[in-house]
Design brief:
The chain has eight helices and twelve strands. It has helices at about 15-25, 35-45, 65-70, 85-95, 110-120, 160-175, 180-190, 195-210, and strands at about 5-10, 30-35, 50-55, 80, 100-105, 135-140, 140-145, 150-155, 155-160, 180, 220-225, 230. A five-stranded parallel beta sheet has the order 2-1-3-4-5, with helices on both faces. Strands 6-7-8-9 form a four-stranded antiparallel beta sheet, covered by helices on one side. α2 (about 35-45) packs parallel to α3 (about 65-70). The radius of gyration is 19 Å and the shape is elongated. The chain starts with a strand and ends with a strand.
């Protein structure tokens, strides 16, 4: 995957758009967002994109109308997202020119796999294009490698459980922004461990210990009372 793959996400759910962007950006994608159909259609047809991720259910100008406007001017690959499960909606989208259809219950890894497959299938990227290694995320003395799951604090490698690594990576991708427990659950629930609301607190507590964080005055993981957690740069 090259670093110039431009993706436009058109969805009135700003939180979901941000989750998609947070996941795709470290993978080498450039992600832009629009939250209404009219502006989304304008940007989709006036700028160069490698793919469009388009929600069906939007007020006013819905995803089907946006798709009609896009197809009147462009052959850019379009993946449609929907909370609906009815077969007729999938058929309508495909008949209008959608290239793929993904229900909103998707996992982040499924989205990435389907998006890459869509780009290859439509010829916008080649099977022979080498995949650029995922960039290491650096937060102060903390270095996180999303590909190898290696975490190093200063010169000391940290041994994290899959749960701890998943949470740390999610917080690192959103560096500086607060993530709710619900957002953290949504991002890591597709991993191979049981997750529920209070389990997040337990895993965060264990993660803090390994980072050398004092819960009362943490350097890396701050608690935003009544909301969630935030990864910050010490000092």
């Amino acid at each position: 995957m090259t670093s110039s793959i431009r993706i436009l996400v058109i969805d009135d759910d700003a939180e979901l758009c941000q989750l998609v962007a947070d996941y795709l950006k470290p993978m080498g994608f450039e992600v832009e967002m629009e939250h209404d159909g009219v502006h989304g259609a304008e940007r989709a047809t006036s700028e160069q994109w490698h793919a469009i991720i388009l929600d069906v259910m939007m007020p006013g100008c819905d995803g089907f109308e946006v798709l009609r406007r896009i197809r009147a001017k462009s052959k850019v690959p379009v993946m449609m997202l929907t909370g609906r499960g009815e077969e007729v909606d999938r058929i309508v989208g495909l008949e209008l020119g959608a290239d793929d259809y993904l229900p909103k219950t998707f996992s982040s890894r499924e989205l990435l796999a389907r998006l890459r497959a869509l780009l290859r299938r439509t010829g916008w990227i080649s099977e022979t294009v080498p995949v650029v290694p995922i960039k290491e995320i650096v937060v102060g003395e903390l270095r996180i490698n999303p590909e190898s799951h290696a975490v190093v604090l200063g010169d000391e490698p940290l041994q994290l459980t899959p749960a701890e690594f998943g949470l740390l990576l999610s917080l690192a991708k959103a560096h500086g922004r607060v993530k709710t427990r619900e957002q953290l659950i949504e991002e890591v629930a597709d991993r191979e461990w049981d997750v529920f609301d209070r389990a997040i607190d337990m895993h965060i507590s264990m993660l803090r210990k390994k980072l050398g964080d004092d819960p009362k005055e943490p350097r890396f993981i701050k608690t935003v009372r009544g909301y969630g957690y935030q990864l910050v740069t010490p000092g």
